[in-house]
Specification:
Structural class of chain B: mainly beta
Mean pLDDT of chain B: 87
CATH architecture of chain A: Clam
Strand content of chain A: over 45%
Order of helices and strands of chain A: HHEEEEEEEEEEEEEH
Distance between the termini of chain B: 38 Å
CATH superfamily of chain A: Lipoprotein localisation LolA/LolB/LppX
Strand order of the largest sheet of chain A: 6-5-4-3-2-1-13-12-11-10-9-8-7
Distance between the termini of chain A: 77 Å
Radius of gyration of chain B: 24 Å
Strand content of chain B: over 45%
Number of helices of chain A: 3
Low-confidence stretches of chain A: 13-20
Largest sheet of chain B: 18 strands, antiparallel, barrel
Structural class of chain A: mainly beta
Oligomer: heterodimer
Helix content of chain A: 10-25%
Chain lengths: 258, 492
């Protein structure tokens, strides 16, 4: 074997090794994440959300979320606040015709009125928390984003792909970086940027397997501009609920899903 | 162990006895302060049972929430209007949790510092027979109903409030509930709606639903006394004050309570890319209209007594309406319109025939009502200016067909309404700037408020309200009611 041949073989081997290190590209990783989130759609969740302000003050909200996978691509979601008294009965309904096209409604029992919400509000704060309306909706359309694997890292003993996600259409955040756990395909950490500035970040811990679906039970989101933090704890979650369509109507929104 | 058990038992027994004694004391308090008919007594007993059972047993079966509101008002024209004292208002909501058969109660009560009616001869519990019933101490069932529902049908019977139509503050197709005008423009739409005894059936099929409502008896609107700060006739109030006169309040003749005089409404609506609805209504028009007879000014035991001779009048009407809501880009639109047949309107106040210099005697007043059809329409939009900042704009107009020159209302009456809502510090602070303008008469209302949420239970708010315009116009009639109000709210 000549020296040239050896160099060529080593070079080919190097390329193969380096490409196998990223056997998946960013889009592949997020297709797996998307697949998992689609499996999570049929669910009922009881959760507690604690809002921590900079001065140490706390406000607590409890809520119930119902979801339905309305295949092939659509989903429906209904979220009802159970406390505090001021928010009790306030609800939020999503009908997604596709992962990109949604109708949103909010209901305020004090006014007995259902109000339509434009999707432009989807990145806004969800009822004063550091989560956004979008965080409580289903998975996004992957075609609206571009993905790039930046590196690999271990978070809480879990090997992760670190993927940079950039929206193709104007959104509040110009890009975000997600730590996606290998094999589980759950996001363990996420950072939202506006241009180069880190705006908010979240960590998702206490991942448990429920009905074969890895589910983080402790979700923390912090706004770095305001130093405000929200901790969302899942108290109970049930998958494969297969709720009827009637659960996701305006009437059900008005009745608090009862 | 046995001793411990015995101790716990006697402790439980004594707490029951204490609760029972408290209950009896409360019943006695209500019995002493309350004068009313059998139906009202039954409602009081129902309320007591619900509260008592909710306290004792209820965690799993009932969901109970409520709030207390301490309110202080600083009038800005203190010498020109009646005194208003601080108010302490309470709210209690009780719901049963089983889904098919439900019970719901929304009770309000407390001390209303703006009210002036002496409690003697009037019920503390707000009733359905009087227009003038603003007693300082009051109880009111805003809602009290039982319901049965399955996936396709919901039946409700009891005291209900409805929200038909799409527009804020002055919805056009929302015709089933009368309004409480005792602090008219100070209150939000939902605060001023009076619950009516009714039976409703709602059929649901996917994104469609049809609601049929029957209101068997007329519940009249409520008006403040002529001597209260929020009187709708400031001219009469001024006159009464000038002559230190006592004014007689006439409640008007309610129509006899039979099937023929009931009201009925039907609404069909659908949701989707565009939400739309069609509304039909036949029944009593719940906007205030007055009938004039004769005004009597007399001297009784050295006291000037004035009977203004203007009493609330009630007429039937029919209405057909449509409404829609949809989102286009960043804008959330809504619109509604209605054609009302046979509405009554009052002529201008100065044509009613009151003497320019009143003295003791009887004055025959002129006929002051006119009947004509109206068309009302309006459009509103929400626009998110930036995160936690929402601009709501609304314009609506009423067209009176065959309008005679004697009416105060013009052929076209417009209300332009704008609200800018802004949240700060993760919704710990909420501010609202609210402007309303009636271009035909040039009258305006401006309201600015700010709320600060201390904890989940405590919040405090300050609201400044100003009115301007001619004395008979919608907003101008309250031009002496500019005020600053402070509210402290505890909710649980």
């Amino acid at each position: 074997m000549t020296n040239a041949r050896i160099v060529f073989l080593l070079f080919t081997l190097l390329i193969m090794v380096s490409s196998s290190a990223y056997a998946m590209n960013g889009r592949d990783v997020f297709e797996k994440v998307h697949e998992l989130r689609a499996r999570m759609l049929d669910q009922k969740t009881e959760a507690t959300m604690v809002l921590h302000d900079r001065g140490g003050g706390k406000r607590t909200r409890t809520l119930t979320e119902y979801g339905k996978n309305a295949s092939p691509e659509a989903y429906k979601a209904l979220l009802i606040f159970n406390s505090p008294a001021d928010l009790k009965g306030v609800g939020f309904l999503v009908h997604a015709r596709t992962f990109a096209e949604k109708n949103l409604w909010a209901y305020f029992p004090e006014y007995k009125r259902v109000r339509r919400i434009p999707t432009s509000a989807q990145d806004d704060s969800f009822f004063g928390s550091d989560f956004s309306y979008d965080d409580f909706s289903g998975p996004p359309s992957l075609d609206d984003y571009s993905f790039k694997i930046l590196r690999e890292e271990t978070v809480d003993d879990k090997p992760c792909y670190i993927v940079e996600v950039t929206p193709k259409i104007p959104r509040k955040y110009t890009r975000y970086i997600a730590w996606v756990t290998k094999n589980l395909w759950v996001t363990a950490r996420i950072e939202y940027y506006r241009e180069k500035e880190l705006y908010r970040s979240g960590t998702f811990r206490n991942i448990r397997l429920i009905d074969g679906i890895p589910t983080p039970f402790n979700l923390e989101m912090e706004n770095h501009k305001t130093k405000h933090k929200t901790v969302l704890t899942i108290d109970q979650i049930t998958y494969r609920t297969r709720f009827p369509n009637e659960m996701f109507t305006q009437r059900s929104l008005e009745r608090g899903a009862k | 162990m046995r001793c411990l058990h015995k101790g716990l038992w006697s402790e439980a027994q004594s707490s029951w006895i204490i609760l029972y004694l408290k209950f009896l004391r409360f019943v006695n308090f209500i019995r002493l302060t309350y004068r009313g008919d059998i139906m009202k007594r039954a409602l009081i007993v129902a309320f007591l049972l619900v509260v008592f059972s909710s306290v004792c047993f209820a965690e799993d079966l009932l969901s109970v929430s409520g709030r207390m509101n301490l309110r202080g008002v600083l009038p800005l024209h203190n010498n020109e209007t009646a005194t208003e004292y601080p108010s302490l208002l309470g709210r209690l909501k009780v719901d049963t949790t089983p889904p098919k058969w439900r019970f719901h109660m929304w009770l309000e009560g407390g001390w209303d510092g703006s009210a002036d009616l002496k409690a003697e001869g009037h019920s503390v519990l707000k009733g359905w027979s009087e227009v003038y019933q603003s007693t300082p101490l009051f109880l009111e069932f805003k809602e009290l109903y039982g319901s049965y529902s399955n996936n396709f049908l919901e039946l409700r019977a009891g005291i209900q409030r409805f929200a038909w139509g799409r527009l804020d503050e002055y919805p056009i197709n929302d015709l089933l509930n009368p309004w409480d005008y005792t602090q008219f423009l100070r209150k939000s739409l939902e605060d001023r709606k009076i619950g009516v005894p009714s039976i409703s059936a709602r059929l649901n099929k996917r994104d469609w639903n049809m609601e049929l409502v029957w209101v068997p008896l007329l519940v009249p609107y409520r008006l403040p006394l002529f001597t209260e700060r929020w009187s709708v006739f400031p001219e009469i109030a001024t006159l009464a004050e000038k002559y230190d006169a006592e004014i007689i309040h006439q409640n008007g003749d309610l129509p006899s309570r039979n099937m023929e005089n009931s009201s009925v409404g039907l609404r069909i609506q659908s949701s989707g890319t565009v939400d739309w609805g069609v509304t039909l209504f036949h029944g009593y028009d719940l906007r205030p209209v007055f009938k004039t007879t004769e005004s009597v000014i007399s001297l009784i035991s050295g006291q000037v007594v004035v009977n203004p001779g203007a009493e609330p009048d009630f007429h039937k009407m029919s209405s057909i309406g449509i409404d829609a809501a949809f989102v286009k880009g960043d804008w959330s639109w809504r619109a509604e319109a209605a054609y009302a047949i046979g509405r009554y309107h009052n002529t201008r106040y100065e044509l009613w025939g009151y003497p320019s210099t009143p003295s003791l005697g009887t004055y025959k007043l002129n006929s002051n009502e006119h009947q004509s059809d109206t068309v009302a329409y309006g459009i509103g939009v929400d626009y998110r200016l930036f995160e936690d900042c929402l601009l709501t704009m609304q314009a609506q107009q009423t067209l009176i067909n065959d309008r005679p020159d004697t009416l105060y209302d013009r052929q076209f009456e417009t209300i332009i309404w704008v609200n800018l809502k802004n949240f700060f510090m993760n919704q710990k602070i909420e501010t609202n700037l609210n402007l309303a303008y009636n271009p035909e008469h040039g009258d305006t209302m401006t309201k600015v408020n700010a709320w600060y949420v201390f904890t989940d239970a405590w919040k405090v708010g300050i609201t400044a309200t100003g009115f301007d315009g001619p004395s008979q116009s919608l907003f101008g009639r309250y031009s002496k009611n500019d005020q600053v109000e402070i509210d402290v709210i505890f909710s649980w």
